[in-house]
Amino acid sequence: MNFAVGYVRNDQHDPGEMHVERVYRVDAAIKGVESLGLGSDLIVADTISVSLEDLYLVHPKEYIDKLTNVSTSGGAWADEYEETWIGESSTLAAMNAAGTSVEVMSILRESKAVNYGFSIIRPPGHHAGPRYPMGFCLLNNIGIVARKLSTLGEKVMIIDIDVHHGNGTQDIFWDDSNVVYLSIHQNGLYPGTGKLTEIGGENAILKTLNIPLEAGSAGNVFRMILESIISPTILRESPTWILVSAGFDSHFKDPLGGFELSSRDYFNFANELRQSAGRDTKMLYVLEGGYDLSAIKDSTSASILGLLDGSFNLENETYSEAGTKDVKNAKSYFGF
Ligand SMILES: [Zn+2]
Question: Domain total for the chain?
């Protein structure tokens, strides 16, 4: 079965040796794809810059001008903690990441034979809001794809499985009833948003669904969420597209996150999500965080095999008691 990918290494966007968000992350994910040997079934998108028209669907011109000015004046950290680097080449790099994500989406949209894809890019996007860079993110890649699909008449659901809450994506679609945003993340971890009670603006109540989980949550908890919250949401909303903010920092090896997922759990998640979504729903994974290189490599191949309904036996499924109560709470809070 055909599968579409986009690769953007962006090694010219370099936050420095001490930083965790570096080009090796994308290299690890590419190795994960290559290990599958998909041959001619793999369709590789061109690396292209996002058009201003698409960019402005999410980020106002003043914000883009601000980023461009920082880059042309030699670069600077966006924050006092030196987390988010905007270097000389970073604005153009972020535009490549967003543009290539749109390009992978276009391949899926234009071809009946390609239903699934993965945009393997950096810098990541889900912390970037309409008017702010944050948490290694300059432009909200998945947000731009989602808004573009929405303007094309598609019904979009974003599922964010990064261990951190995607505050930027939430802000973008907070009051937009056309895009559903569902996030599973570690409670209390950076950036501190994503409480159960954050359910969207007055025009989009329950189009934002946050499921904060305690540290230690494992694969069985993600499966519970799929069965008791995601599947009923899919039934209720009937999305024609599902976009996944694929953070591999929910893996047990990740140095930043406290979740316990194995790459096998990422396989299960992709595979079961694909079944829940049904055959006519297009699915695009977009890389977000993930800072252990072997976890990135294995979870990338696991996720793709899950989407392609292959088999995957590396690592075991994981189980925790932690997180199960949080899912029950969330389920009843959302009325399922
Ligand atoms: Zn993350």
Answer: 1
